[in-house]
């Protein structure tokens, strides 16, 4: 399946100045084009960093959130230009040693509790 699915899905509509309206059918076609016929709902949820039940609710009648519509539209364009499909979000660091070093920040102040102030 090539980038031709973008033409099959048809143009997306716009609501207002900045909101992108993505119908559940548009989302389904885009997800199948990006992730394949089998397992597309789970892969879409993983790539968006949401629970699969959230994706299911969008197909049960809840509106597709604007950031989701924007992400899917961007992924379609990236796929059209590069042939690269979206993958899962990177995992957060597992240990404090893996966190990036903070520079230029002072340590947080610890404030005395009410019990300590009364002493």
Please describe what this structure looks like.
- There is one protein chain.
- By secondary structure, the chain is mainly alpha-helical.
- Helix content is 47%, strand content 5%.
- It is built from six helices and two strands.
- The protein has helices at 5-9, 24-35, 40-48, 52-59, 66-82, 114-118; strands spanning 13-15, 19-21.
- It has a two-stranded antiparallel sheet with strand order 1-2.
- Helix 2 crosses helix 3 and helix 3 (40-48) packs across helix 4 (52-59).
- The longest helix is centred in the middle third of the chain and has 17 residues, at 66-82.
- It is elongated.
- Mean pLDDT is 75; it is low at 1-19.
Short characterization:
With 119 residues, the protein is mainly alpha-helical.
Features of this protein?
two-stranded antiparallel sheet, elongated, 119 residues, 5% strand, mainly alpha, 47% helix
Strand-helix topology:
Layout (H helix, E strand, L loop, with lengths): L4 H5 L3 E3 L3 E3 L2 H12 L4 H9 L3 H8 L6 H17 L31 H5 L1
Antiparallel strand pairs: 1-2
Helix pairs in contact: 2-3, 2-5, 3-4
Overall pLDDT metric: 75
Weakly predicted, low-confidence segments: 1-19
Number of helices: 6
Radius of gyration, in angstroms, nearest whole number: 21 Å
**Extended strand count:** 2
